[in-house]
Amino acid sequence: MKKIKHSTLRCDRLRELCSIENLTYYKSQLDVETRWNSTYYMIVKFQKMLRPIEMLAATDQDIKKFVPDAQGWIKINDTLTLLEPLEKATVLLSASSYPTISDVRFLFLGIQQHLNDYIGKEGFSQSEVASLILQKIDQYWEVVDSSTLASIVLDPRTKLTLFSTGEESTNAINAVKRRFSEYHTPMSQPAVINHDNGEVASTRDYFHQLKRRRLNNSTLNITRPSSGIYEEIDQYLALPCDDNVAPLLWWQAHF
Fold first, then answer.
1. Residue ranges making up the domain that contains 21
2. Domain assignment present for 61
3. Confidence of residue 164 (pLDDT cuts 50, 70, 90)
4. Residue 51 lies in a domain
């Protein structure tokens, strides 16, 4: 594609050939190493203009030697098969007005499954490419998986649906409970004014103890027994998932 993109004459000729074939002319796109989607879009455009490109190659030897043979097209089509879900995931997240970490996990799981399906698949020419992509995805996944369990469970659109039944779901619930425990303030016992052998504490200490009693009493209505701190989690998980809601708005309306 560089040979065409960097030549005004070739671009003009390709545009003419597309017009002759009643095909849309697509501006050549270079493959950018740091953008996986650029590879996908480059190949898609190449496919759509294949006939005009072959016509151009028939009269241009520099182009002809870069036109893929039958085996090359098998590899190209298999590459598209691998990259299509990654392109869809990028578009989905970019178009979302409110992407969440559960969206990322949902897409990661789908991409991982897709790549695993093609690693070692008989007759698939790009199994090694699938393995290399999966290795890179797995590096990111280690970070996402370990640090986002609670956030994903607390997304009312997914809850536990992104976790397998059993140990994985249990670990996710426990992650939420641990986070609840971090923010939970245990109910304190009211401070007692000490009178040691009839001897009254100093006046200042006496009023410090009264202050502690007042502060403890003021929290009684907003704290709850330790045995009940997980009731909200159980109530939340008992409700059905809601795919068509913004998570923050859902929590605002329900709790």
1. 1-67
2. yes
3. confident
4. yes
Residue 97 lies in a domain: no
pTM of the model: 0.67
Single-letter amino acid code for the residue at 214: R
Phi, psi of 200 (to 5 degrees): -80, 140
Look at the block and give the residue holding tokens 């697509």. Answer: 26
What share of residues in the chain are helix, strand, coil (percent, to 5)?
65, 0, 35
Indicate whether 20 belongs to any domain.
Answer: yes
Q: pLDDT digit string (tens) for 173-194?
A: 988 888 888 876 655 444 444 5
Structure tokens at 7: 């030549």
Within 8 A by CB and 6+ apart from 99, the residues are: 93
Query: What's the domain count of the chain?
Result: 1
Do residues 154 and 148 make contact, with C-beta atoms less than 8 angstroms apart? no
By mean pLDDT, which of 27-31, 78-82, 146-150 is the weakest? 27-31
